[in-house]
């Protein structure tokens, strides 16, 4: 029936760390409890209960991203087995929209964070490079539902796209030069000039602004 | 001791006499004495007062939040289709950015998904003085707490025994009445008596729940030989509908008390109860229903095509089986008012007994029932389309959202075929565009 003191202190802390408002955190907390079945941590299996998510071709990559230690800002590498509410919020904060009053530096940092998240999604072996094989992996996953599409076509799409990426990042290559893979800096280069902030966010409703609209 | 015993007997008989006179007799005739209406007016006034107190007692900011936390979403979803979204990002055929769309959709689904929230009770805008709905609300003032305590006393000590008495009487008379009527030979007298018994018992049971039901558009009431179709929120939907007319019910044969009721009622009136093994045999089910519908003298069948209880904020997929039988469909929309009591049965959280107890300790069950004009399957329309058409009509009338999802998702997972649809769409887009582009460039990697 109401929040005790320690809860609201925790919420304040989380609000500062992740940038969500306290109402949003309470809402997300309820969602967290719903997903985890009232337990303090979530495991991969808990994401199986979301019907909307089942449709998504890159579902496994998205769920994977929640447990990826690099996204959780932990020093170590690899995958966590389970995440608690704070980790959940940390991952969610990658999808916060940009705020109007952000200065250049923060904006840039924000953008980098989002791109880093995306980079980690592609780079499944955590070696800091998106190799051709990993790229092919993603394309195949996205196109895997189509029975008419042969594996070869999926491959050549990936190869073609990789070629283009190489040409942006490295320029003209010598005939015997081997392109190892897209590093994070190359990745950033590819996105220059494209406005990803509006594409990669989930707009959380701000409760107060709605009330004024009535 | 004897004095106590005598006093108790007198009290009990007075109590029963009151119940008989004020509630049971009017039920038989179908007349209302206005006691429920009085109760409801008092209740509404009290709850309004409570709401005003809450809004005054809480800071203005938070009060606005109370209003909006009832909205069914925390996210504003951008409803562009996959095609538009990816096309706007495209410079070439496949881009790293294509992953954005799916990524974002995935995240939105994780934060909030339309389906699982339908399987838990609706949150209220303002507190209705029941602890069970007290998710967001905090201690406000002493007066409010006192009113709440009085409410608890009234509900548990006054209303609950009354309702339990009525419910017991109702169920007993249903069983006894229908068994007696079942002994008569088939004929119009039997039908008339069976109708009387069913109606009386339904009315008693509705009063047992302090139900206030408003029926709209009674001219569209289901006729004999038709099929009545409604959205499903709880087992008491049946009682709500039979309060106003007689139906032939369709369902699985249960054991226990339900089974006794089922066996008794089927003697008086041709309900269709299936054994569990038979439910699996769809053709047998269809055959029996078709036979029933073909006979114009038989009562309309009552079916709930969703197949499971939904929390009354939305209407989920209607299973096509009911719509393949033929005949005229009479859609009915049922919408409960959650302010007075939550009728939704969350079967994973509460078992039958605790559900009934919660029902009987709520303030009241208030609902609106709309009878919609009859519909028939049109030329060239298959059962699924027809089912969706009926579903839209019901959702529109009842003010519920419409979802294409299957209520069976409460317990099962999404079918593989649906998953592949999305992937097929995306790949069609990519490969369709890329036919002349990258595929022919022949740049083989090393």
Describe what this molecule looks like in 3D.
The complex is a heterodimer of chains A (214) and B (446). Residues 207-214 of chain A have low confidence and may be disordered. In chain A, α4 packs across α6, α7 crosses α8 (151-170) and α8 (151-170) packs across α9. Chain A has helices at residues 5-18, 22-36, 51-54, 59-67, 85-93, 104-122, 132-143, 151-170, 184-190, 207-213; strands at residues 41-43, 82-84, 129-130, 182-183, 203-204. Chain A is built from 10 helices and 5 strands; from the N terminus they run ααβααβααβααβαβα. Chain A is globular and about 60 Å long. In chain A, strands 1-2 form a two-stranded antiparallel ribbon. In chain A, strands 3-4 form a two-stranded antiparallel ribbon. Helix content of chain A is 54%, strand content 6%. With 214 residues, chain A is mainly alpha-helical. In chain B, α9 (256-268) links the parallel β4 and β5. Chain B has a 7-stranded mixed sheet. In chain B, strands 7-10 form a two-stranded parallel sheet. Mean pLDDT of chain B is 75; it is low at 63-72 and 433-446. Chain B has a domain at 142-410: 3-Layer(aba) Sandwich (Glycerol-3-phosphate (1)-acyltransferase). Helix content of chain B is 50%, strand content 10%. Chain B is built from 14 helices and 10 strands. Chain B has helices at 2-29, 35-57, 60-68, 82-89, 98-111, 142-183, 188-208, 237-242, 256-268, 276-280, 282-294, 352-360, 383-398, 416-433, and strands at 75-76, 211-216, 227-230, 248-252, 272-274, 301-303, 314-315, 329-337, 365-371, 401-402. By secondary structure, chain B is of the alpha/beta class. The termini of chain B are far apart. The chains are: A mainly alpha (214), B alpha/beta (446). Chains A and B meet through α2, α3, α6, α7 and α8 of A and α3, β1, α5 and α14 of B. β5 (203-204) of chain A pairs antiparallel with β1 of chain B, so a sheet runs across the interface.
């Amino acid at each position: 029936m109401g929040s005790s003191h320690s809860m609201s202190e925790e919420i304040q802390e989380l609000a500062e760390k992740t940038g969500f408002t306290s109402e949003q955190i309470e809402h997300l907390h309820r969602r967290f409890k719903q997903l985890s079945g009232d337990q303090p941590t979530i495991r991969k299996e808990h994401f199986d209960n979301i019907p909307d998510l089942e449709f998504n071709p890159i579902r496994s990559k998205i769920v994977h991203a929640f447990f990826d230690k690099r996204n959780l800002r932990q020093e170590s590498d690899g995958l966590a087995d389970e995440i608690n509410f704070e980790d959940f919020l940390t991952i969610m904060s990658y999808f916060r929209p940009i705020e109007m009053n952000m200065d250049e530096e923060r904006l840039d940092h924000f953008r980098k964070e989002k791109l880093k998240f995306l980079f980690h999604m592609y780079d499944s072996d955590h070696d800091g490079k998106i190799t051709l094989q990993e790229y092919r992996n993603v394309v195949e996953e996205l196109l895997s539902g189509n029975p008419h599409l042969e594996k070869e076509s999926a491959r050549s799409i990936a190869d073609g796209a990789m070629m283009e990426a190489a040409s942006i990042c490295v320029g003209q290559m010598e005939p015997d030069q081997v392109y190892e893979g897209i590093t994070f800096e190359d990745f950033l280069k590819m996105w220059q000039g494209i406005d990803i902030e509006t594409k990669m966010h989930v707009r959380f409703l701000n409760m107060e602004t709605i009330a004024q609209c009535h | 001791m004897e004095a106590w015993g005598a006093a108790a007997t007198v009290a009990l008989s007075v109590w029963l006499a009151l119940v008989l006179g004020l509630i049971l007799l009017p039920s038989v005739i179908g007349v209302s004495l206005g006691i429920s209406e009085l109760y409801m007016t008092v209740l509404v006034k009290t709850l309004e007062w409570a709401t005003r107190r809450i809004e005054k007692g809480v800071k203005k900011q938070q009060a606005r939040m109370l209003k909006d936390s009832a909205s069914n979403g925390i996210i504003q979803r951008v409803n562009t289709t996959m095609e538009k979204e990816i096309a706007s990002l495209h410079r070439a055929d496949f881009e790293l950015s294509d992953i954005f769309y799916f990524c974002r959709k995935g995240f939105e689904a994780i934060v909030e998904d339309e389906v699982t929230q339908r399987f838990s009770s609706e949150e209220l805008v303002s507190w209705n003085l029941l602890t069970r709905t007290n998710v967001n609300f905090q201690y406000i003032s002493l007066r409010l707490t006192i009113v709440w305590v009085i409410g608890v006393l009234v509900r548990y000590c006054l209303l609950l025994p009354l309702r339990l008495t009525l419910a017991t009487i109702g169920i007993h008379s249903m069983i006894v009445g229908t068994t007696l009527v079942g002994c008569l030979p088939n004929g119009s007298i039997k039908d008339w008596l069976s109708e009387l018994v069913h109606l009386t018992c339904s009315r008693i049971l509705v009063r047992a729940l302090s139900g206030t039901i408003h029926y709209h558009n009674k001219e569209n009431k289901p006729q004999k030989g038709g099929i009545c179709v409604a959205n499903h929120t709880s087992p008491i939907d049946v009682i709500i509908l039979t309060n106003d007319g007689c139906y032939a019910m369709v369902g699985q044969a249960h054991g226990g008390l339900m089974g006794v009721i089922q066996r008794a009622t089927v003697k008086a009136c041709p309900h269709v109860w299936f054994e569990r093994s038979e439910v699996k045999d769809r053709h047998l089910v269809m055959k029996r229903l078709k036979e029933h519908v073909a006979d114009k003298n038989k009562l309309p069948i009552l079916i709930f095509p969703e197949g499971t209880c939904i929390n009354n904020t939305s209407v989920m997929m209607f299973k096509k089986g009911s719509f393949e039988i033929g005949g005229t469909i009479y859609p009915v929309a049922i919408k409960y008012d959650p302010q007075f009591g939550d009728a939704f049965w969350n079967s994973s959280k509460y078992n039958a007994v605790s559900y009934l107890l919660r029902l009987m300790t709520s303030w009241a069950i208030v609902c609106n029932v709309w009878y919609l004009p009859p519909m028939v399957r049109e030329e060239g329309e298959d059962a699924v389309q027809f089912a969706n058409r009926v579903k839209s009509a019901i959702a529109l009338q009842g003010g519920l959202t419409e979802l294409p999802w299957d209520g069976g998702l409460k317990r099962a997972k999404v079918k593989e075929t649906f998953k592949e649809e999305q992937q097929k769409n995306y790949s069609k887009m990519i490969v369709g565009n890329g036919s002349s582009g990258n595929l022919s460039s022949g740049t083989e990697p090393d």
